[in-house]
Amino acid sequence: MQFHTTSDYAIRTVMHLAMHPDRCCSATEIEQQMGVPAQYLHKVTAKLKKLD
Predict the structure, then answer these.
(1) What angle do CA 13, 18, 19 make, to 5 degrees?
(2) What is an example of a Pfam family matching this protein (predicted)?
(3) Which residues, at least 6 apart from 25, have a Cβ–Cβ distance to it below 8 Å?
(4) pLDDT of 1-52, one tens digit each?
(5) How far apart are CA 12 and CA 16, in angstroms?
(6) How many distinct structural domains can be found in the chain?
(7) Confidence (pLDDT) at 21
(8) What is the residue range of 29's domain?
């Protein structure tokens, strides 16, 4: 199954946060460990925040 790039980055971001429920994760950490570009990460997290 293929996802749109934004969906892929959103899923990877949520997965990273779920793997570390005991602490806050910085955007820089997610960028480096999950390979999500900074500009996309900000866009994705803004969309996820709206869904909350």
Answers:
(1) 100
(2) Rrf2
(3) 16, 17
(4) 677 888 888 898 999 999 999 999 998 998 998 888 888 889 888 988 898 6
(5) 6
(6) 1
(7) 93
(8) 5-51
